[in-house]
Amino acid sequence: MASKQQKHYRVVGLPGDYIGVEVYAAAVRALDALTQDRDFRIELDEQLIGGAAVDATGEPLPQATLDACEGADAALLGAVGGPDWDDRPAEQRPELGLLKIRAALDLFCNLRPVVLHPALQRFSPLKPDRLVNVDLMIVRELTGGSYFGNKWRNENEAEDVCRYTRPEIERVTRAACDIAMKRDRRLTLIDKANVLETSRLWREVVRAVVDAEYPELDLEFLYVDAAAMHLLSRPGDFDVMLTENMFGDIISDEASMLCGSLGLLPSASLNERRFGLYEPIHGSAPDIAGKGIANPYAMLLSTAMMLRHSLGEDEAADALETAVHGCWEDGILPRDLDPDGPGTDEITDEVCKRLG
Fold first, then answer.
1. Is 0.70 surpassed by the pTM of this model?
2. How many helices (H) and strands (E) would you count in the chain?
3. What is residue 351's predicted lDDT score, i.e. its pLDDT?
4. Which of 200, 232, 259 corresponds to the end of one domain?
5. Residue 253 bears catalytic tag
6. Residue 21 shares a structural domain with residue 87
C-alpha cells in the first residue's frame, strides 16, 4: 500500500523584538515536536519586522517580508517595539510595521479568544462567582477606523479620522456570524451609536446582515462603555463580541485580565484567503527581555490557532492546546503568575515533552 503523502506548509517567522524573539523560539520548538510523528511538515522562512527591521533596513516592514508573506500559508509573530526606537520619526516606529502588514495583506478580521481555565481562576482579579462559564470570542475589525484614517497635527490641533464603509463592516460581520453559528449563536455588537455616525452605520449594517443571512443568531447591541462594565460584572454572559478597531483593541485587553495575565492569550488576524498572522496579545516587554523568564503560553496558543485556522491541522492544534492546559493543571506557571515558577525554556520543555 502506498504511504500517505506528506503535506508541506510554509510559514513566515517574524521573531520581532525583545521577548518576541524568546517566545517565538518556544513556538519553533513546539512545532518541531508536533511534526515529528505527523503527516505534515512546516518550512519556516524567518523575516524582519519592527525594531529589528528598522535597525537592519531603516524601515519597520521591509518589502522582502511582505513578499515572503504573499506566498506563505501563515505568519507567526513574536512581538515588536520598545524604548530603543522611541526617538525615531513616525515612519520608523516599530509598531508601524504591524499596521502596514495588516493593511498590505488585508488582515481585516482579528480573533481574540478569552477562555478562563479552572486552574487559573485564582489569578483573576474578579471574584470566583463572576467567572463562571467565561468563554468568549472577540472579533475586531483590524484594517479600518481611526488607526488607518487620515491623520494630521499642528502645534495646537490634531485629528484622527475614523472612517468605515459598508463592505468593510459586512465582511467582518459575516466572519463573526460564522463563528457565532459554531458556538452558542449569540452575537454582541460593541459600539457607541448614541454619539458616533460610524457606530450608527455599524448597527445598520450588522442588523441587515444578521436579519438576511443569519436569522438564527441572537443579536445584542451594547455601548462600549457599558460593555467595559459588563465584562467585569457578567463576563460569562458573552459569546461572540464584534466591534470596530479601536474599541476592539481596548476591550480585548480588558478581557484578557479575566484570565489574570496578558501572557496567556493568543490572537489571529485573518484575510479572505485563509492566510493569518498569529501573535500573542502581549507586547515586547523590554524590562524582562534576556532574563529567560518570558511567558511563552500565549505564543504557543497562537501557534495552535495557526494550525487550526490557516493550516487546517485541527488534531495538532488540539494536541498543543491540551499540552498547554495540562501544564497549567500541573502548576507549571510562568513568572508573571508565580514568582518562583519556571522560566521560558523550562516551560517549553514541559510542553514539548507532552507532545512527544
1. yes
2. 11, 12
3. 98
4. 259
5. yes
6. yes
